[in-house]
Amino acid sequence: MVAVAILAAGRGTRMKSDLPKVLHQLAGRSLVERVLDSLSQIPRSRRLIIVGYRGEQVQTALERYDNLEFVEQKDQLGTGHAIQQLLPHLEGFEGDLLVLNGDVPLLRPETIQMLLSTHKEQGNAATILTAQVPDPKGYGRVFCDSKHQLKQIVEDRDCTAAQKQNRRINGGVYCFHWPDLAKVLPSLKSENDQGEFYLTDAVNYLHPVRVVQVEDYQEILGINDRKQLAKAYQILQMRVKDAWMSAGVTLIDPDSITIDDTVQLESDAIVEPQTHLRGNTLIKSGSHIGPGTTIEDSEIGENVRVMYSVVSHSQVKAGSRIGPYAHLRGEAQIGESCRIGNFVEVKKSKIGDRTNVAHLSYLGDTTTGDRVNVGAGTITANYDGVQKHQTHIGSGTKTGSNSVLVAPVSIGENVTIAAGSTITNDVPDHSLAIARSRQTVKPDWQLKPKAD
Ligand code: UD1
Ligand code: MG
Hints:
By secondary structure, the protein is of the alpha/beta class. It is 15% helix and 30% strand.
C-alpha cells in the first residue's frame, strides 16, 4: 500500500506574491497540478494534500481531481511540521508514504515509479531522490557513502563553507515506510537557522536510508522564485519541442517558438519562428503555421497555412489560408480551402467551403454558404447596442467592397451586393441589391473664388 502526501501549505515568500507558490502557473498548469500529474504511474492510493496559506484557494484550484484529502497545517512551521499533521489521518497505516514538495513540477512519472520500486526492493526505511546539480545554491545538501547509504541532509543555510561545496542535492521527493516515520516525527527539533521543523532531519533517526540518483538532474529543480519558474519553463519547452521534432514536426528556430505540453501536432506540420501554440490545440499534418502566430484551444486541419495571425477557440478545415493579420475567435469555424486574409476578424461564425474573406472585414455571428466572396471592407453590423444578431450569406454570393450587412439579415444564394451598400432587409436568391444614394455629377461646376 502506498499513500501520497504533497506539501502545499507554504506561502512561498521568495516568489514575492499574494498567490500561494504552488498555484503559480507553468505553461498552462499550476506547480501543484504538475506534481499531481507526475503521479500517473503510481497505483490509485490515498492522496493527502497539506494546505495552509490560502488553503481554500489551493483546494478550489484542485477541484478537477477526485478523491484528494486536504489536511490543514495552520501555522507553517516547516516541512517536518507539515508531515506531522498527517499523524491522526494515517493512524494504523502500515504502508509506504510517498512525499513530494509541491514546488517540484518537472518530475517524470517514471522517476517517481523508480523511486518507489527501489524503496520496496531495498526494504528501506526511507529513500531520497537526489542528483548532482551544477548550481546547488538554496538546496539541502545530501551526504552519503559510496553504497548510497545516506548520512545526513544539511540545509543550504545551515551548511559550513566546506559542506556548501557538495553539489548533491535533496530533490524534496521521498519515500518513507510510514510506521517508522510516524515513530520519529514527534522527535523533530527546530534547532536550525530558520527555527523550523525539517522533514529532512527525520532521516537522522531512520535506518536504512538510501538515495536514488535521478539521471536528468533538471527533473528535481525546485521552484522558489520567479527566476527558477522561468528556468523551469525553458526546460519544459525544450522537452516538449524535442519530442515534437522527434515525432516529425519541423520547428524553424525552436528557441523562438513556445508550445504548451497540452498541444498536439501531426507529422509534417511546420512551425515558423515567433509562433505560440497554447492549450487544447491540434495542428494536423502538412499545416504550416507562422511566423508570428498565436493559436489557442483550436483545431487546424491538414495543409492549412496560417501566418501572422491569432486564432483562439476556433476551427480551420483543410487547405485554408489564414492571414497575414487575421483574427479568428469565439468559435469561428472556417471551411475547406477558404481564404481569410489581411486584417480580417471572424467571431463566432461558420464560413462555408471555398469562401474568401480576403481583406479588411469583420464577420460576427454569421453563417455563410460555399464559394462566397466577401468583398474588401464588408462588415456585419451584428450588435445593436443591446443584443447580438445573426447574418446569413448564401452560397455563391458576392458582397461589394465596403458593404455593411445590418443584422439580423439574410442574403440569399448567388446574390450580388453593390459596393458601398448598407443592407438592412433580406435579399432573395439570384438578385442584385444596391443600397446607396446615387452619385450626382454637376458638369462645368467650380468653387467660386473668394472675393479678395
Ligand atoms: C526543501 C528541502 C530541501 C530541498 C528542497 C528541494 C526541507 C527542510 N528542505 O527546501 O532540502 O533541497 O526543498 O526543492 O524540507 N511547505 C509546507 N509547510 C511548511 C513549509 C513548507 O507545506 O511549513 C511546503 C511548501 O509549500 C513547498 C514545500 O513544502 O511546496 C517545500 O518548501 P520550501 O520552503 O520550498 O523548501 P525549500 O527551502 O525549497
Ligand atoms: Mg522549495
